[in-house]
TrEMBL record:
Family: Belongs to the pyruvate kinase family.
Originating gene: pyk
GO molecular function term, any single one: pyruvate kinase activity
Species of provenance: Thermofilum pendens
Entry protein name: Pyruvate kinase
Catalysed transformations (reactions): pyruvate + ATP = phosphoenolpyruvate + ADP + H(+)
Length: 464
């Protein structure tokens, strides 16, 4: 992470970026996370790219690999694409059954009602339902466009009665665990039970240290965000599909609400969808895209994610460089809003005190975090200076990698029981240039699992 950028960057790996030379170039830009979209699963290339990214890691540079599951999504079937004009009537028929029309999953027919809006490809096309007799849905196009096969379809404002994890998801989860992914993004989460179900599957696979990121892209997920955050390790604000549940002018406030909720819990929020969409085809972003990125940074997002820009765009490296540049500019002129401890829990109050102390004395925070709780608590309170988080667990380093302002360092031979823990961390931090002579360092750690209860302050002396 650039010392002053603070907000983290996640890119999506795809045909435009999965060659080794492109991944290496993107890695050199300081990207922290790499998302693999399992809706477009490519076994050979995913495994190869994940393996190569692991070769780019070092103890000072962990990389976080995220498996983004397809989830219970409904897609149009196979047909020849055709143009539609606003006012045209289009017929939808159950996939696999005889009948003329656009094939779609049968579940749609059990939910769609007259005047419902069918949203195709996250709103690029929209149709108003005229009638649904259980065998044919007749719908009127609301905008001009090209109707293409295999595109997503949703009913605006309604959840569909689908399982939280499909058979495809279960197979993909197994692959992700075997390939060494660090986090799983759960698509179309609706309630906390969806997260709990995924956690059970991971535990059955012996992967309890894999983090779960709930993608918030349904109205139900927004309503249930508190309980979802109880169980999830972070959230991804999927703005495209949220437009299937909220009017466009509401997306800004929904995004702010979700980011604030995640920060109150000390869990990372990733903002995604169309951040630099125009860069799929152009080497420079639009002015409005620049403002959108700055807005997400100012709202307090922990990470920003590129999707099609790096997966399928013409300018993947340029998109990363622009996102870095904009995020750095936004961070330089943005003062973080204070967050009060969400509870009177002693560890929360201590973490807030550590940050306040470091801010007052312009100190750097040197923290030891075994399971990630100390790291989360410190990130929550947004210290002005660097937070260098040492850990003896690689999974914790890769998780801290997604939290705003944290610089994770992996040292497997550290232990919270070391009598010279602080001295070892400080000596290493000085040797690699993270801390310099004259710096004031605030050291913190937890002596018990999950705790943050130790504080020491020291001024780094020059070597004689």
């Amino acid at each position: 992470m650039d010392a002053q950028r603070r907000v983290k960057i996640v890119v999506t790996v795809g045909p435009a970026s999965w060659l080794e030379e492109t991944l290496q170039a993107i890695g050199r830009e300081g990207v922290e996370g790499f998302r693999f979209n399992f809706s477009h699963f490519d076994h050979e290339n995913f495994r190869r790219a994940a393996s190569y990214l692991r070769s780019l890691e070092n103890p000072l540079r962990p990389l976080t690999l995220i498996a983004d599951l397809q989830g219970p999504v409904v897609r149009l079937g196979e047909f020849s694409e055709f143009p539609v004009k606003a006012g045209d009537t289009v017929k939808f028929v159950p996939a696999g059954e005889a009948g003329e029309g656009v094939p779609v999953d049968k579940v749609i027919f059990s939910v769609a009602a007259e005047n419902d809006i069918l949203s195709v490809e996250a709103g690029r096309l929209a149709f108003r339902v005229l009638r649904n007799d259980g065998h044919v849905i007749a719908a009127q196009a609301l905008v001009d466009g090209l109707l293409k096969p295999r595109k997503t379809l949703a009913i605006k404002g309604k959840d569909l009665p689908l399982p939280s994890l499909t058979q495809k998801d279960l197979k993909d989860l197994k692959f992700a665990v075997e390939a060494g992914f660090d986090a799983v993004a759960l698509s179309f989460v609706r309630r906390a039970e969806d997260v709990a179900r995924a956690r059970e599957v991971l535990e059955d696979l012996g992967a309890s240290d894999v983090r779960l990121i709930a993608k918030i892209e349904t109205g139900s997920a927004v309503e249930n965000i508190d309980r979802i955050l109880d169980l999830a390790d972070g959230i991804l604000v999927a703005r495209g599909d949220l437009a299937n549940y909220y009017d466009l002018e509401k997306i800004y406030s929904v995004q702010q609400f979700l980011i604030s909720k995640a920060r109150q819990r000390g869990k990372p929020s990733i903002v995604a969808t169309q951040l630099l969409e125009s860069m799929i085809d152009n080497p420079v972003p639009t002015r409005s895209e620049v403002v959108d990125v700055v807005t997400a940074v100012k709202m307090g997002a922990d990470a920003l994610m590129l999707a099609g820009e790096t997966a399928a765009g013409k300018y993947p490296l340029e998109a990363v460089r622009w996102l870095k540049k904009i995020a750095l500019e936004a961070a330089q002129f943005h003062e973080e809003e204070a967050v009060e401890p969400g509870s009177s829990e002693a560890y929360e109050v201590i973490a807030r005190g550590v940050v306040a102390l470091a801010d007052i004395i312009s100190g750097k925070i040197l923290a030891f975090s075994e399971g990630g709780n100390t790291a989360r608590r410190l990130a929550k309170y947004r210290p002005r200076g660097p937070v260098i988080v040492y850990t003896n667990r690689l999974s914790t380093a890769r998780y801290a990698n997604l939290l705003r302002g944290l610089i994770p360092v992996y040292m497997p031979d550290l232990s919270k029981t070391d009598v010279n823990l602080f001295e070892r961390m400080l000596e290493h931090a000085v040797s690699v240039g993270l801390v310099s002579a004259g710096d004031i360092v605030v050291f913190t750690a937890g002596r018990r699992p999950g705790a943050t209860d130790l504080i020491t302050v020291e001024k780094v002396k020059p070597k004689l």
